[in-house]
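Write out structure tokens for Beta-galactosidase.
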Amino acid sequence: MLQRTIFFLFLLGGVLVSLVAKADDNPRTFILLDKGWGYRPVSDTGLKSSMKQVTVPHTWNANYIPGTRSYNREMMVYRRDLEITPDMKDKRLFLYFEGVNSSATVLVNNKSVGSHKGGYTAFCMEVTDYAKQGTNKLEVWVTNAYNPEILPISGDFNIYGGIHRPCHLLVTEQDCISPLFYASPGVFIHQDKVSEKQAQITVETMLSLRGKKQGLKVRTTIEDAKGNIISQNIEQNVTNENVKQPFVIEHPVLWNAKQNPHLYKVIVELLDNGKVQGKRIINHVK
């Protein structure tokens, strides 16, 4: 039986990396922050206390002995230098965490940027106004202590604490496709009506417009599995940070896992006088 779903967008942080490709003309840059971290218990405030050097992803429960019921559920502070280079001047800066278990508070230069609850969901915070050019101090206060407000409360597994998934510095233009909505790609594909004869869909793009420029455009292109353009929509003079673009595709190729696993690609570009300010490529679209 044919599956009557043509477009589906995964929003989970762990899948995001595989779905969002980086093109040469994409001004968005991800910088992996895996090395240079140290950590210690928050309670260890002695003058001689030192940070243990680690690489992220990391958990302080790595030495847990299987078969025992006790493991550390406490608060730790992670710290590293955050280098902001001259080429990042006039750019926007975001910290993108793929997972911190199970509650995190992020500080830059001793100022709180924000907090996140939940160890298995990605989150993103803007630090443009907190970081300066040169060396900055980045801290993440992490706790896996029991908290009835954070799921899962219990299960047949342990709640290991730490920055247990990769962390990145994200650099964008002043006007960009927003990474702040639950750390999603900022692009949502809605199926309005789909049949073998016709697919009516809406591509919704969430923008973050800080530059307040005039004449911005959002160009959304849909390609088939061979890279052929089958539809394109250009939204002119964009001022609204939520852009919805309708598409009608005649005789769409409906995805079938065994007989015809056809996949589409959706490319969303934010343009300023023809120059790409933001770009998201959503692969593996059914």
